[in-house]
Structures are given as C-alpha cells and as structure tokens.
Design goal:
The complex is a heterodimer. By secondary structure, chain A is mostly beta strands. Chain A has no helices and eleven strands. Chain B contains no helices and eleven strands. In chain B, strand 7 (62-67) and strand 8 (72-77) form a beta hairpin. The chains are: A mainly beta, B mainly beta.
Amino acid sequence: DVKVTQSSRYLVKRTGEKVFLECVQDMDHENMFWYRQDPGLGLRLIYFSYDVKMKEKGDIPEGYSVSREKKERFSLILESASTNQTSMYLCASSYYRSTSGISSGANVLTFGAGSRLTVL
Amino acid sequence: GENVEQHPSTLSVQEGDSAVIKCTYSDSASNYFPWYKQELGKRPQLIIDIRSNVGEKKDQRIAVTLNKTAKHFSLHITETQPEDSAVYFCAAFTGGFKTIFGAGTRLFVKA
C-alpha cells in the first residue's frame, strides 16, 4: 500500500519556537506538497517541490520554509511559530497520470494523515 | 488569481436521496478536476476525477459532470448511504503542479 507518512500527528509549541514538520513518501513520486487545512478555507498550498532541492512558493508561503534534500522527504519549517499558524498541515505527493493523446497529465495527490499544530 | 468556489458549504440529505455539490473555477486553462473525500479524522482521498476533454464520468453511485464553457463542474451522489457522510473537496489543476481546492462541503447523510 502506498504511503505518505507525517512524523507527528499532534504538536503543541510556544510562540517563537522553531517547528519542523517531516513528511516521507515511499512511492518514488517526483512532486511533494505542503497544504494547510482550515475550516471554511479548504486546502491552501504553502510550498511544493518538483525535484530534489527544488522548491516553489504556493499561495500562502509567508512564515514558512521547506527543505527537500532527498526525493522521499519533504520538510516544512516554521522559523518562528505564531498563533495564527495553529492549523492542520497536510503533506502530499503526486505523479502525473498521462492520458493517451493529451500532452499534460493529471496530478493525482496522495495525502498524509496530517499534523495538527497548536501554537500557544 | 486562480480560484475554485464550492457550494454548498453544508449539505444534509436523507439516506437514499441524491446529493449534488457544485464548483466553479476561474482559470480557463484548467484541464483536470479531481474530487477528494475526507472522512472525520482521516486524510483526503481521491474518489473520482474528470479531464477537460470529457463531459461526464460515472463510477457506481458517484458521477461528475463538467461544463467547460461555464467553467462549472459538479459531483452527484445517488442513493446516499451513512458512510457517504464526509467533507468533499473539488479541485482544479492547470498543469503547473498546483492543484487549487474549493473550501469543502460537509455532507451529512441521515439514516
């Protein structure tokens, strides 16, 4: 069974602490993503990576950074946690599922179980 | 910027009835439209998807329709069952690695 594993399900941190959220996938996927999930706002993309050491900003990158030193691992870093970063964080990986005759593929996401972060 | 609007935010139906969730996307270059289901306390999982060159797709009790001209797509669940209760997210993908999600619909199926 394919897996995206997030190292911590629940974390409680204090304002100003540095926070690391780790994500590992065993599917040899090229692409990895960090989303933030808040009620009524859906899933918002923080950062993504399409290759080792490559990273791109998503829609809400402020206050976050990422690291992708190995293909299977994608880390989300909160340099100085703030209370407005209290949220559920979802990691995902993807492959392109090509369709015959169509040049662009479908980005099928496999999600981790999530890391619920509370910043006090 | 790119945006996906999803309605309704909450939907309550009687077991056996049908449920319809509607989404609108803004980027006309979007070419792939997945739907994810998230049960309480679990991860979102892909349940069905549709590409821009297809108008409708069906998989047992669920179906998706796409109107490219109007930039609308919808999820239809027939003969709903209690295990269909979950949050459903629509999404749009334009090929640039980014999948944009709607805000989600919480579906309650009453037994």
